[in-house]
Amino acid sequence: MLAEVNTAFWVVISIVALIVLVLLLVVANFFALWVQALFAKAKVSFGDLIGMKLRKVDPRVIVLSKIRAVQAGLDVTTREMESHYLSGGRVPNVITALIAANRANIVLTFKTATAIDLAGRDILEAVQTSVNPKVIDCPNLASGKSSIDAVARDGIQVKAKARVTVRANIDRLVGGATEETIIARVGEGIVTTIGSSDSYKSVLENPDKISKQVLDKGLDAGTAFEILSIDIADVDVGENIGAKLQADQAEADKRRFQAEAEKRRAMAMAREQEMQALVRENRAKVVLAEAEVPKAMAEAFRAGHLGIMDYYRMKNIQADTHMRDSIGGSPSAGKDRPKT
User: Fold this and answer.
1) Helices 2-39, 59-71: inter-axial angle, 10-degree rounding
2) For residue 151, what are the β-bridge partners?
């Protein structure tokens, strides 16, 4: 009986020792973070730290972010940070952005900041851009184009480079268009303004006219930015596009007219061949008709309608006619003489 009591006693002692050891390990693991939170008045308990570990949340990230938020005077709970962490958000980045916005008197709530962060936007960069405006080159050099090319009404090409100063609009950051949209709209506005100019000289004389007209179009609507200014960095004269197009059009007209002339010449040659064939056909008909003359004369002799004297008189008239044609130099002399 005494042996069984001793065995039970040692079992209880072992279990208690194991529990104490586990508690000591937990305390040792979270003691440094708990002390940091305690002295920073962040109000993070051991239970919260253990719960974070069980929920697969990095306690160090949450505690350090909580300390920074408390020191900056932000009212953000540990539960909100954990929820954002579990959603795949960047808690330190959000807290840094909130602190920067608070120092710059920019209205930014934790809910808005987390929404922007989960949308894939860099909330810290957005706040920094809102405080310190950003300059965008137009066109973007990464696109391979060094200038925006447009043609004035006089046909002269003008090449322009612009610099757009923008500031992030926190309210439109979620769902707003990116820098590429700003660059495309500004480029379109520059092309339209240059194209509406009567001469390239007016563009060179007043490059600020381009920036004023483009800025008045409200190109930042629906974007995540607010355009502060559009500055024309450089304006150069390009090719005479109008003259080049006219030359190309003239060359095209020339080829078209040559094709039409060749078509008419071919049609004329075909018509000539047709007429020659028609002449040969008519001559053949004449020959056939002349072949009927002797038959008709023989029939006239047999029927008594033509006498021998009438025949010789006709021959004399034909000979006289042929002689006169020969004297007159008629090219058809002898050709139309009937053969007997």
Assistant:
1) 40
2) 157
The Cα 19–Cα 91 span in angstroms is 34
Give yes or no for a contact between 214 and 163, defined as CB atoms under 8 angstroms apart.
no
Are the C-beta atoms of residues 92 and 65 closer than 8 Å to each other? Answer: yes
Q: 49 is written with which tokens?
A: 């730290």
Write out pLDDT tens, residues 179-227: 888 888 888 888 888 888 888 888 888 888 888 888 888 888 888 888 8
pLDDT in tens, 59-99: 888 888 888 888 888 888 888 998 999 989 999 999 999 99
Instruction: Give the C-alpha separation, 129 to 132, whole Å.
Output: 5
Joined together, the tokens standing for residue 101 give: 């916005």
Are 124 and 178 within one domain? no
Which DSSP string do the residues of 173-203 spell out, in sequence order?
Answer: TTT-B-HHHHHHHHHHHHHHHHHT-S-HHHH
295 assigned to some structural domain: no
Statement to judge: residues 36 and 48 lie in one domain: yes
